[in-house]
Amino acid sequence: MKKGETIQIEVDLPVLTDAVWQAITDPEQMRQWYFPMLPDFQAEVGFKVEFNMECEGRTFLHQWEVIEADDGRRIVYNWRYAGIPGDSNVSWELTKSGDATRLSFTHTALESFDSNDPLFSRESCQTGWEYFLNGQLPSFFKNE
After folding, report:
1. What is the pLDDT of residue 115?
2. What residues make up the domain containing 18?
3. CA 99 centroid distance within chain
């Protein structure tokens, strides 16, 4: 992704806002649909976490830092990879819609990632987020 590029995805989930908040902030639930290797997560400004993830035979050290947290409503964390140029923020915002919840997700590149690496293309990132938000997360709630 290049500096300034943004990915936006909205998903309507047939569960209450509290359930979605738990799914995106509780480390045990996050491990079930998002990143199984996530060691910990806290929805508190200043919380930092690092974890390795393998993709296409390469290992990437993810580095996250929570920069905004409005309990039950919105969380934003900075997302980068150790030793790799690039920096971004991801935000998750929840809105109640009757007995359902609308999740508005945004991933914004603050600094460009390696444009010569197809894993960091906007298309690759979009595909990854759609996998998580349109596939894994809704399936998680169906299995609950």
Report:
1. 81
2. 6-143
3. 23
Q: DSSP for 69-121?
A: EETTTEEEEEEEETTSS-EEEEEEEEEEETTEEEEEEEEEEEE---TT-GGGS
Both tokens of 129, joined, read 């987020």
Residue at 1 is within a domain: no
CATH number at residue 41: 3.30.530.20
Strand partners, 65: 48, 78
Q: Distance (Å, rounded) from C-alpha 86 to C-alpha 88?
A: 7
112-143 residue pLDDT tens: 998 889 999 999 999 999 999 999 999 999 97
Of residues 1, 20, 8, the one with CA closest to residue 94: 20
How many domains would you assign to the chain? 1
